[in-house]
Amino acid sequence: GTGADNDLHINQAIVFIEDAIQYRSINHRVDSKSLWLYRWYYSRTCQWILSLTITIILALVFIEKPSSLTITSDVRFRLPAWNPPCGLTESIELLCFLVFMLDVSVKSYLIGWEEFWKNKWLMAYILTLIVSLTDWIVSLSLFCAEDVRIRRILRPFFLLQNSSMMKKTLKSINSTLPEMASVVLLLAVHLSLFTMFAMLLFARTKDGQQEKEWVRYFRNLPDSLTSLLVLLTTANNPDVMIPAYSKNRAYSIFFILFTVLGNLFLMNLLTAIIYNQFRGYLLKSVQSSLFRRRLGIRAAFEVLSSLKETPADAQQSYVSVGALLRVLQKVEMDSRCKQAIMRSLKTCSCDQLSAAQFQKLFEELDRDAIKQHPPSPEYQSHFMQKMQIAFGHPYFGYLGNVVALANIISICVVLVMDADKQPSERDDFFLGAINCFFILYYMLEMLLKILAMGLKRYLSYPSNRFDGLLTVILLVLEIATFSVYGFPHPGWRPEFMGLLSLWDMVRLVNMLIVFRFLRIIPNMKFMALVVTTLLDLVKNLRAFAGILVVVFYTFAITGIMLFKGAVVPLGNTRLQFFIFLFLFQTFFYIKKVEVCYFKEKCDFMALFGHFQAEVIYCLLYLLPINLICRWAKIYFVAWWLISSVIWVNLFVALLLENFIHKWDRRCHREPLSDIEYQRTVELMFRDVLEEPTEEELMEKLHQHPHLQLCR
């Protein structure tokens, strides 16, 4: 009937608008039951359950054999870790697989079978589940005694496929690879040429000093290539040139030329290419997101214009304001945007909205989120008004910064004076007394600011919340210290009492005071710009962090499977997860240690110049030397290429883009003290995005596999 059709169109419009808000595709089923299932699937509860399931299956690696549940990470001293019985983690895995099977089934049904066969991610999702379940069955049939578990390597895929932004980022990286490959190839040519020069230059001779260079670094082609590859990371600089330099200073020219060409030119050229290409591909990705948003809004307009209550017009379609209000009441969207759209509708004098007016209403979704601070209280008393002016003035905040700086300096002085003293020789009277004075000032400052600004306005500033929270914690700690140890007095060195000793409590207070000094950041505009850039990266570029987690996780699991049993510490045959996370970053210190296996005499001062080298040195005595020197190099070089060469440069590119964007906005917009602008990744490129034309939108809508338009 007419009423049922109207309800269907209303529900379709609700879903299309929610798709536009979340940048989702509208190519899904649009019948009544499918719309209910669609909204249920994308509800906060279902998405929270799915995210929790992904977290659980990724976290299983910490308790699976080899378990990481030990207090100490030192392989020499830790007790045997608890390993779960066979079937415990497998049962949890099965529950997670059931959730994923339900997830992929719902997704496949909602988009329809025709779209399903076009969706490569869903096909990969199903293939991953099939392989994981097969491996799970094999594991149980072998009573969990198998050495290789393929499904553990596949687990990061569940995280990857659940994030549309991560998939877009991965697609952008894939598109950038051809340009990156050209520079990587140039780096390979650079390495190969200098490797040949090095083998000719440092060939084996009767000269003992030059032979040291040959033995340690350029004995053969693999060793020569590895030495120069490590030099490209500067990890073995200047160790690699010391034997040759000791003989003749002119040999340093070779290493200087290699470092300048490789590090200063080629590596920075790679960063520039990645920045240029990746920014372009990310811009295309954000452009497609904008198209999805405009398409969702236009689809909502088209279905609402089909309502029976809307007067028909052969020339142009319209949507009634009443129908849109009904839709907005049920749409899940940000309250700020919803209120702004409703205000615009109430002030609109017309009863019907055209497509252009309808689209313009929802441009509120694209605008900066503006947070306006509440007004200060209005006091009637003349004295209170003067107090408000005095303690609400910026100079009062500057005074607080000066006092905080004085507190930091006093702590530094005491730490320098007590650096060489034993705990029993320290007198904590002076430090305790000055901390008490400063904490009382911080408390008074906070109360006076609340008096001047009002509690709501005070709490509306993040810097004030940070300052106030630390001040309250410091006050509680100070009261706890006095209640246990009494007030400071000369010779204030009581014995250990309670949960923490006096020295521990004083150190904790001092650390919080030092941390509190970060309150000066908002007062320094350039520093504030840098900090807000970093915070925006944390908030808006979670997709990059997610892919980094995927890379770390995959390499860590692969490392455990490849090198299991290679490390045999005293009384412990398990190779822990943390070793490989550490080895990832420290591999290129290995070359400093390998000489101990080839040469009886070793420069131990150079060898132990880095903490990482010490740890690698200990591990090398436990690892088969053939494994470390040959096949393990492929594993770690692959890690270096992906994490350092590619991913770090991608992060630098996005950091530069975010910083330049904020710098440009800072130069072209006057600062407003009471307004905070919050930007998203999409809004970063808002000024350069192109609006889709009506013809493009209508053409795409007519290609919808499940929606039949009247016109």
TrEMBL record:
GO terms for cellular component: late endosome membrane; lysosomal membrane; monoatomic ion channel complex. The chain crosses the membrane at residues 41-63, 84-102, 122-145, 180-203, 250-275, 395-417, 429-448, 469-488, 508-531, 543-563, 575-590, 602-622, 634-656. Keywords: Calcium, Calcium channel, Calcium transport, Endosome, Glycoprotein, Ion channel, Ion transport, Lysosome, Membrane, Repeat, Transmembrane, Transmembrane helix, Transport, Voltage-gated channel. Its main location: membrane. InterPro entries: Ion_trans_dom, TPC2, Volt_channel_dom_sf. The keyword Glycoprotein applies. GO terms for biological process: calcium-mediated signaling; endocytosis involved in viral entry into host cell. GO terms for molecular function: calcium channel activity; intracellularly phosphatidylinositol-3,5-bisphosphate-gated monatomic cation channel activity; ligand-gated sodium channel activity; voltage-gated channel activity. Pfam families: Ion_trans. The gene is Tpcn2_1. This is Two pore channel protein 2. It is a multi-pass membrane protein.
